[in-house]
Amino acid sequence: MGENHFSSKPMALYGFILLMSGIAYVILQSRIIKNQGKDSVLFKAIGNDFKGKISPVLYITAIASSWISQWISGGLYVLVALLWLIPDTRIERAISDNLNVKD
């Protein structure tokens, strides 16, 4: 993106790559849950999975907005990165709760 001065096509392609990575994460997560069942620690931990649901929406919006404004597109990519940078303790909490129940 930097070599092309953040033009529309590289920004859209970058968003597409991020979107595909996000979709791969959702597929992996759903396969683990399917394998372990609805009583699994992961299923209990993810709950409504706000981050997992909002990220693809923001990526698609960023891809579409890359043709309008590269600044908006880049800002949305940064927003998703910051969203995932905020620690999410749901899985750790569910694991510790599961260990406490077994004791």
Question: Would you mind describing this structure in some detail?
Answer:
- The chain is mainly alpha-helical and 103 residues long.
- 78% of the residues lie in helices and 0% in strands.
- It has one domain.
- It has five helices and no strands.
- α1 runs antiparallel to α3 (50-65), α1 runs parallel beside α4 (70-85) and α3 (50-65) runs antiparallel to α4.
- The radius of gyration is 17 Å and the shape is elongated.
- It starts with 7 loop residues before the first helix and ends with a helix.
- The model has no long low-confidence stretch (mean pLDDT 84).
Question: What distinguishing features does this structure have?
Answer:
103 residues; mainly alpha; 0% strand
Helix content, binned percent: over 70%
Low-confidence stretches: none
Order of helices and strands: HHHHH
Alpha-beta classification: mainly alpha
Q: What is the arithmetic mean of pLDDT?
A: 84
Q: How would the blueprint of this fold be written?
A:
Blueprint (H helix, E strand, L loop, with lengths): L7 H29 L4 H6 L3 H16 L4 H16 L4 H13 L1
Question: What is this structure, in a nutshell?
Answer:
This protein is mainly α. It contains five helices and no strands.
